[in-house]
Amino acid sequence: MADNYNVYLNPLTDRYASAEMSYNWSPQKKHSTWRRLWVALAEAEQEFGLAITDQQINEMRGHLDDIDFEAVAREEAERRHDVMSHIHVFGTQCPSAMPIIHLGATSCYVTDNTELIQMRDGLKLVRGKMLKLFDNMAKFAMQYKDMPTLGFTHYQPAQLTTVGKRFCLYLQDFLLDFERLENELANLPFRSVKGTTGTQASFLELFDGDHDKVRALEKRVAEKMGFEKIIPVSGQTYTRKVDFYILSLLAGIAQSAYKMAGDIRLLANLREIEEPFGKKQIGSSAMAYKRNPMRSERVCSLARYVMDLPVNAAHTHATQWFERTLDDSANRRLVLPEAFLGIDVILSLLVNITDGLQVWPAVIAKRVAAELPFMATENIMMEAVKAGGDRQELHEAIRVNSMEAARMIKTEGRDNDLLDRLKADPAFAKVADKIDSLVDPKKFVGRAPQQTEDFIREHISPILAMYEYELTGASVDSVNV
């Protein structure tokens, strides 16, 4: 936490986000990556014949991380140019390399390529947390795959499902997000060396008009920075549509998170399922008895923010004039890091929530019992028909008894006594002793348990097995879960 309480503190970094994601968007990561890019460029240029010595490259390698940020600030106060300020400070640390640092490059060589690296590395951190979330949710779904629970449509009582099946719905949303994440990681392009307007004219000059060497240089620098794909053409910047796609992916994860956390909040109100609650946690400063779903509320709060960011990226792309304008810069300094930091916090919260979800079977069973008699009437009627009853007469008897039972529930707050009413009705005399057995909740969940098993086995378990190494190393710590 910052020591100066007289300045604005970003809650994403100061209060919520993990150390790993905060570092990924830190000045240290950003500017040490600039230096690594300058080294990669110099190495590749040397490989293809430019007069760059091993001493110059080794000197640069020796100062990748020891950045004097105060010296940079002094330089930038005079030069009003962040990249040139860092070049000069880097050059004072490795004076023999000063003449060849940034050779042939434009500022976007370091700025754009670094942001692509940060997005790539950020997506990998997101993937790690999603895998941990998958693991938690899959275990939870399998544990409760057979537990009947009341389904809701329009937030009105509907047919039964199971607790496990319901959580498969949330998990499937995250699976769709995960598949998009994998696609973006596989196809995220590197800008590499493109020059001031994307024509690579400066590099063509350096290599005496040798187009093959310029193409090879571009590929080699990308390889050195861990990228297989290069954006085919660019202006000074890579197309900002890439940012929009990445932010849309993160917004999709936020949507899935909001859906699940929102439902957990509703379930908490019903007292069926609740998020973890600490022994000394306080739900309300005034109402000491309260057990507010504050983690899920925070998920929804941050998810709304992240979901709104893609439209910002869309405007940035749409308003880039010709080969580039600089009005994207200040905007993207805010939008890109905060989208990743927001999702990082959201996923940390969800991992924490799903690691300690509290299920209250008695409450769930009581609500099922209150509504199931109405749902079971068709089964009861069919059994009575088999015993010789008239379907139309039985239907009318059920209608009359159901309406009266519902009236007593609403007007007098009674429990649902429809089954007792049907047992006492002469029309159902022949099946009265079977009625209780016809109302076993497990007979009304359809294939929900099997659907849960199939989904986890066919779609989630293979992913967890594929990324077992990443799952075991995924950090889910945050400052204030």
Summarize the structure.
The protein is mainly alpha-helical and 481 residues long. The protein has 19 helices and four strands.
Task: Please describe what this structure looks like.
The protein is mainly α. It has 19 helices and four strands. The strands form two sheets. The chain has a two-stranded antiparallel sheet. A hairpin with a 2-residue loop joins strand 1 (148-153) and strand 2 (156-162). Helix 3 packs antiparallel against helix 10, helix 5 packs across helix 6 and helix 7 (107-143) packs parallel to helix 14. The longest helix is centred in the first third of the chain and has 37 residues, at 107-143. The chain is elongated. It starts with 10 loop residues before the first helix and ends in an 8-residue tail after the last helix. Residues 476-480 have low confidence and may be disordered.
What is the average per-residue confidence, as pLDDT, rounded to a whole number? 93
- Helical segment tally? 19
Enumerate the strands of the largest sheet in spatial order, edge to edge or round the barrel.
Answer: 1-2
Evaluate the radius of gyration: 31 Å
What's the SSE pattern?
A: HHHHHHHEEHHHHEHHHEHHHHH
